[in-house]
Amino acid sequence: MKRPTVYETALSHGVTRRDFLKMCSMLAASMSLDYTQSNKVVKALETNARVPVVWLQFQDCTGCSESFIRSTHPKTESVLFDFISLEYSEVLSAASGYQVESALKNVIENYKGEYVLAIEGSIPDSGYAMIGGVDAKESLLEVAADAKAIISYGSCASWGGIPAAKPNPTGAKPIKSFVNNKPVIIVPGCPPIAEVMTGVIAHIITFGEIPELDSVGRPKAFYRHRIHDKCNRRAYFDAGLFVESFDDEGAKQGYCLYKMGCKGPTTYNACAEMRWNGGVSYPIQSGNPCIGCSEKGFWDNGPFFVRRAKIPGSQTTADIDKIGLTALGVTAAGIAAHATGTAIKKKSDDRRGEE
Question: Among residues 289, 290, 272, which one has the least CA distance to residue 281?
Answer without folding.
Answer: 272
